[in-house]
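--- STAGE predict ---
source: upstream dedup step, 1 unique chain passed
mode: sequence only
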Amino acid sequence: QVRLVESGGGLVQAGGSLRLSCTASGSISSTNVMGWYRQAPGKQRELVATITSGGTTSYTDSVKGRFTISRDNAKNTVYLQMNSLKYGDTAVYYCTIRPTATITIYWGQGTQVTVSS
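--- STAGE serialize ---
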């Protein structure tokens, strides 16, 4: 069973920073894509950032230049460094992992990020 455990969410003032982390355990393919989604109240879930096991990254336009996704393959851990946080970043953030050979996505429990102005 694949399990994703997240940490790092919390309350931060606008302009501040948070670092989210997520560690995967279980039967995990070494070739995969890990990422972060978020869902704000009343809004559709959106993909924030992804990173392949080879280190290729992608970001949604609204976070480019502010957020950085990274991973430690040896630890099966993905990080999301969030700088210059805005109120619009307030959401529940979900960690995901997808083996590249499948369309199955495994989800973490979600962690709340609240940005105050």
